[in-house]
Amino acid sequence: MVFDMRNIFVFFLIFIINYNTTIYPKCENNNFIKKKLTITKSNLSGKFKLIDPTKSGLIFKNSVDEWAASLNRTFYNGAGVAVGDYNKDGLPDIFLCSVDGKSKLFKNLGEFTFREETLPNLKYGHRSAVFADLDGNDWLDLIIGTIENGIILLSNINGKFKDITENSGLNGIYSPMTIALADINNDSYIDIYVSNNRSRDIRDEGSVKLARRNGQIIIPPKYKDRLIMSNGVIKEYGAEDHLFINQINMRFDKVNWTDGMFLDSNGNKLNKVPLDWGLAAAFHDVNNDGLQDLYVCNDFWTPDRFWLNLGGRFQLHDNSSFKKISASSMGVDFSDFDRDGDIDVFVVDMLSRELKNRKRQMHAQNKSDNALRKENEPMQVMRNTFLSNNGDGTFAEVSKMVGLSASEWSWSPLFIDVDLDGYEDLLITAGHFKDIQDLDVNALIKNKQKPRDKRLSPERRKIEFAKEMMQNNRLYPDLKMPVIAFRNNQNGQFEDMTKIWGTEKLGVHHGIATGDFDLDGDLDLVVNNMNENAAVYENTFWSPRIAVVLKGLKPNTSAIGSKVYLQSSDGFNQIKEVVSGGRYLSDSEDKIVFGLNKINTGFNIKVRWKSGNSSTIKNVKANYEYTIDEKYSSREDAVEVKNNIKDLFTDNENLLNFVHHENDFDDLALQPLLPFKLSKTGPAVSVVDINKDELDDIIFGCSKGGSITVYLNNGAGGVLAIKDNYKFDDDINSIFHNDEKNIFYSINRGFELDVVSVKKHTLNKNTISTEISMILPIKSVGSFARADIDNDGDIDYFIGGGAFPSKYPESSNSLLLLNNKNGFSQDLANQNVLSTSGIVNSAVFYDFESDGYPELIIAGHWQPVRFFNNINGRLSNQSMKRGIDKGSGLWNCLKVGDINNDGLMDFIVGNYGLNSKYIASEENPLSIVYGDFNDDGSYELIESIYENGILVPIRQFNDLVKSMPFLYDRFQSFNQYSSASVADVLGNKNAKILQVHTLESAAYLNLGKKFTRATLPNCAQLAPINDVVISDFNKDSNQDIILAQNYFNNITGNELLNASDGVVLTYVDKNFKEVKRSGIKLGGEQNFVEIGDFNNDKKPDVIFSVNSNKSKIFINSN
Predict the structure, then answer these.
(1) Cβ pair 180, 332 in contact under 8 A
(2) 837, CA 20 to 30 Å: which among 69, 75, 463, 669?
(3) What pTM was computed for the model?
(4) DSSP code at position 255
(5) Which tens digit of pLDDT belongs to each residue from 68-89?
């Protein structure tokens, strides 16, 4: 448990300040009013306090009848809540929706007491609601989403509601889920977007009559917009979302999807209506252009839609800019969580926080879902996604790195500064009526199923199916969950605080909304629970705060779409936007609260109104509420800001056109339980002056079946391509040049071939000739390095052992080959010290002692970084003495350079990064347990972590049992396996173990005789680092570091690690900083990066080789 001093409060302090409840008194200085906030609590406990409903008077339960939900499973999607001051008495009121009962309006009487108010007779069941002023009369109307009859609109006239649905244009036969509001077309009237879900799932029909032709199932014409076949599985389309434009006088027109209001990512009109399983939609200005963009969460196989607002039209965001989305997207919220000025996007899914649960729950998607993903659509992943805004229109998915990838079966995320420290924390409603992902129960149900009685009528079949479904649902375990709370630790990480912050009560929590119910300037909570009373939580955290209420000009009286900035003298700025609706099925009060982190002075408020005007209030005081009136705002003159900062590099797309083609090799045929593929590491690249014309040339390697390509620099900004006719029968690991004109060498990896050799390549006029130079006594190659090891005037070779085929994580032995003028011989004197090197993915020689004998540094998988001192040609492991003995990692590369400009050479080591499913530390290392458990000659692998001191497997039972069928006899259920340790899995079988203690990429800074480790910043931890170059690219006397990142070969979890689009770092003032305007933007699996002068301007350019894609050259434009 983390013991946080910020949560300790002096209990005997009592703050008593009077509060004036007048809503809009005369503004001070013709601009704003301020009121001292009221804090009358004697128990400042630093948590959420659940209010007793018998004392509050808020008695309400969203009851869902078991039989009704068996007839229509969408009832289990729950109901929402809306908060707003509908009667303008200064206290926010509550409207709670009921799917299968009576929805209720509760008037806030103060002191956390509420009274039910009378509403017009509301038909149907209700799922969602929003308070908003739609007609500009300064009274909040009430928009209610029904189960299958569109929207009910209640007009608010002086605090009394009137049903005007019939003539509003909002009614109809559709099933609203979340309702989001914004001024889309800049006419100041508020428009409505409705995420629409089918009112009934076709599976609840019991059966559907389909045709079969020539053995193939044919979708009948009546279902052409309802059903689709994928990999032999029938899938159902969702329904059309609705956008309603406010035509004034409470009348709305529905937009046609194909009329040009919505455009595809290329800017073309849509040619068909998206039929998605909409669950949530929310407006927010994500790209900071003053226009509210739209994010739509879609369930099942239909992808999320991220629409950029172009000023009255919406264009689908370029999917290359965000590469992953959640598969079962439930809800979305926005926050500048890292306070970098850019708005980030968070979407919830249904992955459990507990590994045990994940091992007994089936995946929400399968191959039939994945087959429906179009080529230009982002990958769908079965977990939460957090899109960190890079500020240039691209996003990095970082949920795993920040600790937010899992939050159980989640519904609604809510960013709120709970502890008032100036950083927004996160609350998430969660739970479901049953754990319908339970593998054991699903297997039981499958075995019980019988063919339908074809003699029954369709209606009778539906009834019988509902009965069966109801009985089956009773077999599943309950899935009650807390409202999950994460604290923003201000360092890019979130910490689970559910049990500490008071939201741990279990239930099925759906809609959540915030409101300052007691007028103390912090935000309290109301949660709509299924089959339990709704919950009201009082916020009892204490820290200085500032509350802001905006009074907009008519008709946008709530100032929806306006932004509020809290600016501090130390540059600590916060941003919040006034939004309406957009919570899952719900809507919060529009009051904005800023936490001040115990600082009381030195703040200004700036408002950017949706109209384009602005207001500024200087020297605002802590613990006050400011009501700011747009009537007194002004339109600032547009100031042209001349940005003289240009990108460091320019993409030169036309210099060469090299596209790498990876061969198809089945790594799993060798070892079915590999965590990632080992065969896809190319293409190797080398930059050398091959023809001795003082110009940098480029040599590309290839994969099996390919050929080497040489690009000769013609000195005029172009290249001449020469391709070898020799077809390689293995991937090339390394390419090197021994300063011989027109001659270079390559070494193959050996992983796909039994023989490893050094090949000599001779460049002729327009051809390349290839011959074998020598056969190496090694099974596979992980790395290669060259140096004069014994100081005899010639170059010797180090070949680092790669993964031993079929025996990963064991390796081939590394070799040291001494150049004896007439050839090479193995250095047996040093063989013993290298025998325990393990897999060596990278090796570097450098003479750190300046004695003519270069030291050797190596790094690899499941190994620590090792430093070998060279004394007269004899190597000695001096890692401990040099301070680099700790920290086994999944190291991929290392590179030497004087990072801090102190005249001593440092080095960078690239690790797996912090944005994958793996977590490792000294206390709880990531482990791999391995051995030939089947006596078949290859190693079985069990990826493992420690939980409560016990080593447990990570992967699901079905993954392991394919390679270890003896597990069928050992485990009788998925639930039994989910609790098993590695010892339980293996019994008395002999096993070995290797461990990883860190996944952070890092720098080792040279202190003279020792090194000190410095972790690279978060941007460098987004993905595995495969290669590094170090140079002063911008001539500012500081070393810059360019990273080649991303990894597409994961098997465990089946995710591409692709969050990096190119990272450049610099080392300034003893810290690593990201170079924001680097100009390097590229996706793909960047396996190598090299420096060269490709346009002959004496400036260092860079080239990236990208696996299975086009390589990229970036020209130094500094």
Answers:
(1) no
(2) 669
(3) 0.94
(4) P
(5) 988 888 999 999 999 999 999 9
CB contact burial 972-982 (16+ within 10 A = b; e otherwise): eebbebbebeb
CA atoms of 190 and 559, how far apart (whole Å): 10
Q: Which of 470, 407, 477 is nearest to 439 (CA)?
A: 477
Say which amino acid occupies 355: L
Q: Which of 686, 680, 678 is nearest to 703 (CA)?
A: 680
| Distances, alpha carbon 462 to alpha carbons 149, 190, 208, 222, 456, in Å | 22, 42, 10, 19, 9
Q: Backbone phi, then psi, for 587, in 5-degree steps?
A: -155, 135
372 to 198, 230, 378, 798, 1058: CA distances (angstroms): 19, 7, 12, 48, 21
The distance from CA 737 to its chain's CA centroid, rounded to whole angstroms, is: 42
Q: How many residues does the chain have?
A: 1118
Find out whether 145 and 194 touch, Cβ atoms under 8 Å: yes
Tokens (6 digits) for 543: 């820290």
Q: With contact defined as beta carbons under 8 Å apart, do 293 and 367 qualify?
A: no
* DSSP per-residue string spanning 764-820: -SS-EEEEEEEEES-S-EEEEEEE-TTSSSS-EEEEEE-BPTTSTT-BPPPEEEEE-
The Cα-based distances of 480 to 431, 474, 824 in angstroms read 5, 14, 68
Predicted pLDDT of residue 875: 97
For helices 439-448 and 458-473, the axis angle rounded to 10 degrees is: 140
E-strand ranges in 535-573 read 535-539, 545-551, 563-568
Cα angle value 422/423/425 (rounded, 5°):
130
Strands 719-723 and 535-539: unpaired
Q: What are 1002's strand-pairing partners? A: 909, 1015
CA distance 191 to 168: 12
Six-digit token pair at 47?
Answer: 């948590």
Span 708-730, pLDDT tens digits? 999 999 998 899 999 999 999 99
Q: E strands within 503-559?
A: 509-515, 524-529, 535-539, 545-551
Residue 977 and residue 1019: Cα distance in Å, rounded? 37
Do 284 and 292 form a contact (C-beta atoms < 8 A)? yes
pLDDT at residue number 217: 83
Tokens of 177: 């889920």
Task: Compute φ and ψ for 468, nearest 5 degrees.
Answer: -65, -40
Tokens of 576: 């919040």
**Contact assessment for residue 712 and residue 742, using Cβ atoms and an 8 Å cutoff:** no
**CB–CB of 539/524 below 8 Å?**
yes
**C-alpha angle 479-480-483 in degrees, rounded to nearest 5:** 130
